[in-house]
Design brief:
This protein has 100 residues and is of the alpha+beta class. It is built from 2 helices and 6 strands. The strands form 2 sheets. The chain has a 4-stranded antiparallel β-sheet, with no helix packed on it. Pfam families: DUF1496.
Length: 100
Amino acid sequence: MRYYFTFIIAVLCLCFSALSYANTIKTLSVVDATQLINTNTECWYDNKRYSEGAVVQVHSVTLICAAKYPQHSNSQLMWLKLDKQGNLIYPKKPATITVN
């Protein structure tokens, strides 16, 4: 009787342990402001360094490491969005300057 009880407990433990395995989904971290604008000649994302021209997919947004000021040859690099056609989307500059 004692062996049957031990056997049933062991079978139940094995059944429940097999059900405890779950599919894990790898999530991508969101780019924060410190990663968008940097002062170096590389782009950083998820603690990894990327060079100019690197493309990263973040959820449904495609980012590319490109020159902050394209008219300068030694410009800083930053992450820029790509549109559906693959064109760079530069951030909009304010139309006026305000002084507090």
